[in-house]
Every structure is written in structure tokens, then in C-alpha cells.
Specification:
The chain is an alpha/beta fold. It has helices at residues 11-20, 23-30, 34-43, 116-131, 172-181, 219-228, 241-252, and strands at residues 51-56, 60-67, 70-79, 89-93, 96-103, 108-113, 135-140, 155-160, 184-189, 206-211, 229-234, 261-264, 282-284, 289-293, 296-300, 305-308, 314-318, 326-331, 335-336. It has seven helices and 19 strands. Helix 6 (219-228) crosses helix 7 (241-252). It holds the Pfam family F-box.
């Protein structure tokens, strides 16, 4: 069989070949030599719409996703351990010979090392340089928080997921670091915080944050979240109507100015209303009306009230049943849904 001189193809033809090759094979091709790496880097279509993700669970995995819910592994970095790698093929990565094989059924590439952290970092740097792709998603299994240092731009999504139900809490220092420094558009904290953990500092800015185990949250944290996060979801917390009332008062005084939606199940204290102390700033709805803003639509029943701030922002809440999470909405500009019209007010 005659050899095919791939690197001697004209640039247009080489780009067409790359467009027909699986991305994992393009990665393998780039490992053959500096020349192949530079040729791929120069000719690969960097406008193709896919994102890069890293998962630091039992096996460190780096992969790609074309759609939000569809992820495919590119490289799995595994412990070398006692594995006999002498008969395996080897590739050069970051100046080191790395054993390599392939999982035929899943089509991804296995790399083996005694220092998985250094190898995954080197592979990420190689892929980032090759395809000009920054990290989109991080899925972190504690204690592998070092992956937060991969890349130099904010992430789109960070999920801290211990992967098991009966999980050990992450350390207090790890908690503080994530809350203060994690730069991502969306942060999902599926981890348990240490018993008695308290935090009084600022919280990094996020478009959306989810706290699955919120028993550590106190009023000061709720206010910090409202000052830095747009959409907030809190589960399993000890927050109460009284805390919500304080948050709304801070919002009304413009000391909490970021959040637009807060979802959490709170303890209802008899005799306390979320709008206590703000009665003169509330508007009474006469007849059911619907509000729409940024894709959210809610219906306020006859006799319900919402709070209006002097700059025109409107805050209201909804809770249909005692066990249903409380939904608090802040609207910048309200669109009264057609057919409903603005409320009569008093």
C-alpha cells in the first residue's frame, strides 16, 4: 500500500481533510510531530461551534460538547499504577513520553501517568493552543480544586459534585476559595459544607448560582448573594421569612442591586410578612394580572401586593403551597402581558 503524503496537500485540500476527520483523530495527528501540530493549528477551522470541558472525577477527563447536554470525551488521564505500559504506543507531550491507548467502543484516548495533574494540564494547554478553545465547563470532584486554575478566562459553568450521596464535607478553606474566587457565569454547589461553617466575606459574581446544601447560609450570606448574583437557587437552608423581609428592605434601599430571581424554601414564621415595614411602598393588585420580564412570567392574584422602588424596579414573590419553594422576582422593566393590562392600584 502506497503512503499518502498528507502534509504535502495544498492548504485548501488539507483543511477539507481536517473537516472530515474526527476531532479525537485530529488531536492524535497533532501529537505526531511539531510539524503536524503547527500544520493542524494553522489550518483547523477555529470557528466550528464546540466547547471544551474538564471533569476531575475518578478519571480526569477532557472533552468537547456541541450542544449543552451532549458531551463527548476526547482524552482520559488515568493512573499508571502497576499497569505494564512497555508494549503500549507512546507519544510526546510536554517533552515527556506518555503511554497511550484507545477505547474502541467509546472512541476516546487514554493517557497514563503517575502525575495526572501535570499531564492533564499539559494536554489542556496543547488542545487550547491547537484549537483556540477556552474551557467552557468544569465538573469538579473534591478535592481536585486545582482545575480551577486551568485557563486564564472565566468559565461558563462550574459544577462541584462529589458524585456520591454520603459525602464528606469539603474543607472550610476550599469553601471560602470557591465562594470568593470562582470566576464562572454559572456555579452549581452540590457539595456539603463543614458543620458550623460560617462565611462573612463577599461572593464572586455569577449570573446563576445553585446551593444544594444551604444549611450554612445566614442572612449576611443571603445579602452577599443578592449583591453579586443574578439568579439564585437555595435548597435545604434554615433561612426564614424574617431573612427574606430583611433582604427585601436592603433591596428597597438599593443596597442589594444584583439579584433578579431568588428561589428557596424557607421557614414560614407566623405573623411575619415579607413586605413588613414596606407597606407604604407596596401596590395592591385589583383583579389578576400577569407580569413578564426577561422570559419570566408570573400572575398576581386579586388582592396581592408588590413593592416598587423609586427607580421603577418592582419586586414580588409567589408561593402557591407551603412546601413549594418561594420565588422572589425583581423586574427592571415590566411588560404587562397582553389581555391582562396594568393593575388598578390603591
Amino acid at each position: 500500500m502506497s503512503e499518502f503524503q498528507l502534509l504535502k496537500l495544498p492548504s485548501v485540500a488539507f483543511r477539507e481533510v481536517l473537516s472530515q476527520i474526527h476531532i479525537n483523530d485530529i488531536f492524535l495527528l497533532s501529537l505526531c510531530s511539531k510539524r503536524t501540530k503547527n500544520t493542524v493549528k494553522r489550518n483547523y477551522n477555529k470557528l466550528l461551534n464546540w466547547n471544551l470541558f474538564v471533569c476531575s472525577r475518578a478519571v480526569y477527563c477532557l472533552g468537547y460538547q456541541y450542544l449543552p447536554d451532549i458531551k463527548r470525551a476526547m482524552v482520559a488521564v488515568r493512573e499508571k499504577g502497576t499497569l505494564d505500559t512497555e508494549r503500549m504506543e507512546h507519544v510526546m507531550i510536554d517533552g515527556k513520553e506518555i503511554p497511550i491507548d484507545r477505547t474502541p467502543t467509546a472512541n476516546f484516548i487514554n493517557l497514563y501517568s503517575e502525575d495526572r495533574k501535570s499531564l492533564l494540564t499539559a494536554v489542556f494547554n496543547h488542545i487550547n493552543e491547537l484549537f483556540d478553545k477556552n474551557l467552557h465547563t468544569l465538573i469538579i470532584r473534591p478535592p481536585s480544586f486545582w482545575v480551577l486554575y486551568l485557563g486564564d478566562k472565566p468559565f461558563v459553568l462550574v459544577i462541584i459534585d462529589p458524585e456520591i450521596e454520603d459525602q464528606e464535607p469539603i474543607s472550610a478553606e476550599q469553601c471560602k476559595y470557591v465562594l470568593r474566587h470562582c470566576k464562572t457565569n454559572e456555579l452549581c454547589l452540590n457539595c456539603v459544607f463543614p458543620n458550623g461553617f460560617r462565611y462573612f466575606g463577599s461572593i464572586a459574581k455569577h449570573n446563576r448560582i445553585v446551593v444544594r446544601h444551604g444549611s450554612w447560609l445566614i442572612l449576611e450570606n443571603l445579602i452577599s448573594l443578592g449583591q453579586s448574583c443574578t439568579r439564585i437557587r437555595i435548597e435545604k437552608s434554615n433561612l426564614t421569612f424574617k431573612d427574606l423581609n430583611c433582604l427585601i428592605k436592603f433591596w428597597h434601599r438599593k443596597k442589594v442591586d444584583c439579584f433578579r430571581q431568588l428561589v428557596f424554601q424557607c421557614e414560614i414564621i407566623r405573623g411575619i410578612n415579607p413586605f413588613d415595614g414596606l407597606r407604604e411602598n407596596t401596590i395592591l393588585v385589583k383583579g389578576p394580572v400577569s407580569l413578564k420580564c426577561d422570559g419570566d412570567t408570573i400572575t398576581l392574584a386579586d388582592g396581592f401586593r408588590f413593592v416598587e422602588r423609586e427607580d421603577g424596579q418592582i419586586l414580588t414573590y409567589a408561593q402557591e403551597e407551603l412546601q413549594v419553594p418561594m420565588n422572589v422576582f425583581v423586574f427592571d422593566k415590566v411588560e404587562w402581558v397582553e389581555g391582562k393590562g396594568p393593575p388598578n392600584t390603591s
